Amino acid sequence: MALVVAGERSGVGKTTVTMALLAALTRWGDRVQSFKVGPDYIDPMFHQFITGRACRNLDPLLTSETYVQQCFTSASQDAEFALVEGVMGLFDGASGREDVASTAQVARLLNLPVLLLLDCARMSRSVAAIAHGYRSFDPRLSIAGVVLNRVGSDRHLTLLKEALEPLDLPILGVLRRQDEIALPDRHLGLVPTDELPELRPLCDRLASLAETSFDWNLLRPLLRIGKLGKLGKIETPPPPIPTADAKIQNPKSKIRLAVARDRAFSFYYADNLELLERLGAELVFWSPLQDAALPEGVGGLYFGGGFPEVFAAELAANPAARAAVGAAIRAGLPTYAECGGLMYLSQNIVDFDGNAWEMAGVLPTEAVMGKRLMLGYRRAIAQQDTFLYRQGETLWGHEFHRSHLTHSSETPLYHLQPYDPQSPAIPEGWQSPTLHASYLHVHWGARPELAAQFVAACGNHPAT
């Protein structure tokens, strides 16, 4: 079995509670596999920091319902415990009108019970109404119990327990207000783990808090994989080895792929990276912040998202790296860039204070930071034949950024349509025969042929 940690809304402490549970299990030497519902990159970083295992994203819209089941089963095979952190409120999905891509949908797909987290800071007896509503709203779900968060005092706890008693709903954890335990955030969410030198002591405090705040006699059987409960255990085969029509012409050795990974570029799905390796790529990590040159002998470049706007001054202060990237891309080195990677390939990044910082200069546009948040799932329709797509091909991705480009490509990569089909599609992205650059984040789990075609393009290009 496993548990899904869900909140009655966003901001109730799902990530903190999940980290506390993972930290306690890891302290005790248990092998625990974590998962995150939705497209988020940062929460999985915290999971992996604690467990030492890659956290997997479970998103039936970005991938597929079948892939979610396969991914969960495959990643959990050698673990003793499994924990799934939800997204937003339990029933909040992609559109706000239904629960597609919601925590509830993933819990149903995996046949797992839900641990419901309630923020009790400003209520007492009303907690019973909320718990009752969530338990009865969808009879297909099983609520294993609740965690009471931000409890103010012993008297407050007594009132909460009295209110919940008629529901016969187990209280599996009680967390008092913990002002000294807080995760710093910025304009796109939490600050990533690589920027938090005090994260290890914080995780130690969370582990100690979890040891005394949860009913482990009830929790451990629910979290343990392989113990059959009321809902049973899902049985699905692991994901197949990906294949694609793309062929690599006479590769002489493993294909080296330069992956930008540092404090500025850290948004990568674990499944994407592992898929590239399974297809024969050797991932060579390098830092556009610190390295003066690209790694030797690489057949392609991969730029994920991240926070290049936060480190724009440092990126600008490394002209050797910027020049090497620009020269390689102009020479035709296959390149895949998402969001932050797209921004790095522009002429300049203009930060929140209006300062312009020179970037790689591949794309004739600037990336300007602003207040407007572009957020949501997008249906992408390819407008050109590229090394990844054929014209007219469609896929789902996710957009999440506060910057905009000052100029658009005359031959855009995609037309993007929001999840709401009544919204108009807009042109987006830059492309050439060997360049793919877009704000769209794409998970290749259900589309392994895209990763295969990227590797094939890298294998067919002379190494740099």
Question: What's the SSE blueprint?
Answer:
Layout: E1 3-7, H1 14-27, E2 32-37, H2 42-51, E3 56-58, H3 65-76, E4 81-89, H4 103-110, E5 114-119, H5 126-137, E6 143-151, H6 154-164, E7 171-176, E8 185-186, E9 189-190, H7 199-213, H8 216-223, E10 255-260, E11 265-267, H9 270-278, E12 281-286, E13 300-303, E14 305-306, H10 312-316, H11 319-330, E15 335-338, H12 340-344, E16 348-350, E17 356-358, E18 366-382, E19 394-405, E20 414-418, E21 426-428, E22 430-432, E23 435-438, H13 448-459
Parallel strand pairs: 1-4, 1-5, 2-3, 2-4, 5-6, 6-7, 10-12, 10-13, 13-15, 15-23, 16-18
Antiparallel strand pairs: 8-9, 11-14, 16-17, 18-19, 18-20, 20-21, 22-23
Helix pairs in contact: 1-2, 1-7
Please provide a brief summary of the model.
The chain has 464 residues and is α/β, with parallel strands linked by helices.
Would you write up a description of this structure?
It contains 13 helices and 23 strands. The protein is of the alpha/beta class and 464 residues long. It has 2 domains: 3-223, Rossmann fold (3-Layer(aba) Sandwich), CATH 3.40.50.300; 255-459, Rossmann fold (3-Layer(aba) Sandwich). The protein is elongated. The protein starts with a strand and ends in a 5-residue tail after the last helix.
Oligomer: single chain
Termini separation comes to 48 Å
CATH class of the largest domain: Alpha Beta
Classify the beta-strand content into a percent band: 25-35%
